[in-house]
Amino acid sequence: MSLLYVVVEMRLGRLPWRNIGARNVVGVMKKATKLEQLCHGLPPNITELARLIEPLKFQDNPNYARMEQLLRSIAEENRIDDDAPFDWDENFAQVLREDARNVTPASRPAAGGGV
């Protein structure tokens, strides 16, 4: 479920229990939040990912191939380059400068994009 929570938070910018400090309350909220509530307004591929993840128990073998397909489609739809450097890479600043010089206004993602 953690993977799902990361994807939902990246896309929506929040989770229902985001500002709750008490761990026991967060746990109760996670259990009480229905999948439909969590994924409300999200693209179908994220909802499908959620439906793959939700019923899994620790000992289950996830359908990794389908999960990878869905994550790749989410990245593609949001123009996320999985080969882009991480901010902790030594040449991150240089790559950003080069990218900024090569981006035209028409090729920039729309504001509020993200996963």
| β-strand amount | under 5%
Whole-number total of structural domains: 1
Summed over residues and divided by their number, the pLDDT gives a mean of 83
> Could you say what the CATH architecture is?
Orthogonal Bundle
For this structure, what is the CATH homologous superfamily?
Transferase(Phosphotransferase) domain 1
As a whole number of angstroms, the C-alpha radius of gyration is 17 Å
Enter the CATH topology name.
Transferase(Phosphotransferase), domain 1
Distance between the termini: 17 Å
CATH C-level class: Mainly Alpha
How would you classify the helix and strand content by structural class? mainly alpha
- Number of alpha- plus pi-helical segments: 6
Helix content: 40-55%
What's the shape?
Answer: globular
Following the backbone from N to C, one meets helices and strands in this order, namely HHHHHH
Q: Total strand count, please?
A: 0
Keyword list:
Transferase(Phosphotransferase), domain 1, 115 residues, 52% helix, 6 helices, mainly alpha
SSE blueprint:
Blueprint: H1 2-12, H2 23-32, H3 35-38, H4 44-53, H5 64-77, H6 92-102
Helix pairs in contact: 1-4, 4-5
Describe this protein's structure.
The chain is an all-alpha fold. It has one domain: Transferase(Phosphotransferase) domain 1 (Transferase(Phosphotransferase), domain 1), CATH 1.10.510.10. The protein is built from six helices and no strands. The protein has helices spanning 2-12, 23-32, 35-38, 44-53, 64-77, 92-102. α1 (2-12) packs antiparallel against α4 (44-53) and α4 (44-53) runs antiparallel to α5 (64-77). The radius of gyration is 17 Å and the shape is globular. It starts with a helix and ends in a 13-residue tail after the last helix.
